[in-house]
Amino acid sequence: MPPRRSWIVNITSKPWWPWAKRIVVLGFLAFVITLLVVQARSIDWSEVMTTLRAYPLHVLLLGAALAASSHLIYSTFDLVGRHYTGHKLPAATVMAIAFVSYAFNLNLGTLVGALGMRVRLYSRLGLEPTTIARIVGSSMLTNWLGYFLLAGTAFLFWPLKLPDTWHLGMAALRAVGGVLMLIALAYLLLCAFSKRREWTIRDHEIALPALPVALVQLAMSCANWAVMGATMYVLLLGKVSFPMALGVLLIGAVAGLLSRVPAGLGVLEAVFIAVLSPPLGNSVLIAAVLCYRAMYYWAPLAIAGALYLLMELNAKKLAASKQAA
């Protein structure tokens, strides 16, 4: 019998494999969209609009300030990549690129945002593809490192009561939380004690940072996810505890990523309704998530779009000046 790895390689090399993957992905996407349409028909949208209009101004301002703070924190992630690769672009430029990439990533997906925007903008400023790849990898690792620790802590110590149809009880959720925490701690231990500091995977060199850098990554990412949770907690008007609001948001973030729906549109709403209704009504939950989307997804995208156009104009002017010289 051939080893498992050889069997997998053999299957994935078949000419029909790419089409099979597309069919599965499209089928899953159609299934998700169908569920979202059915869910949307059951919502009283007039009641949702009434709830939106009733939001206190100070709550909206606080939510917007927290959302802006989260984007500011995320924009520092690429500074870790700057330290990691040693490139000399100004910190303000690096933060602007990270902000634009994150806003596009949230709304249009990883290929457009986290990867496409960074490749486009960094390459226009003279960085090599290998350097850009290491920056992207460092940023993504920073983001998910904090997720693993915070989600692990939330699931282990404050497990949510999930719907019976999810077939995942509190014990299983605690186990998932423990595994996630172990992954984050394992990374820190590797950075602290591993004698081997570099690996080559598919012609890409991966180097472990020093423990202080890893701790900075962890602190930045945890702060970002915690502020995201605080934004949702505020918009839910304190009707659920902060650990519960954070836990549901963390589940919704992964559900949106797995669904492959752009921006997880409708998926986050469905997760909040499934987990928090009852005790909260559907209109309250939908109104809170819509406010969150407006503050965290749509407004930053509008700003990032304008900033991206400005960057493109500056890059063209710089290129023209170099040709003239």
Tell me what the structure shows.
The chain has one domain (45-316). The chain has 13 helices and 2 strands, in the order H-H-H-H-H-H-H-H-H-E-E-H-H-H-H. The chain is mostly helical. It has a two-stranded antiparallel ribbon. Residues 1-9 have low confidence and may be disordered. Helix 4 (57-75) packs across helix 13, helix 8 packs across helix 10 and helix 10 crosses helix 11 (242-259).
Helix content: over 70%
Write down the overall mean pLDDT: 82
Overall spatial form: globular
The spatial strand order of the largest sheet comes to 1-2
* C-alpha end-to-end distance: 66 Å
Structural class: mainly alpha
Which properties best describe this structure?
78% helix; two-stranded antiparallel sheet; mainly alpha; disordered N terminus
Helices, strands, pairings?
Blueprint: H1 4-12, H2 17-41, H3 45-53, H4 57-75, H5 77-85, H6 91-108, H7 111-124, H8 129-157, H9 170-193, E1 198-201, E2 204-207, H10 211-235, H11 242-259, H12 267-276, H13 282-324
Antiparallel strand pairs: 1-2
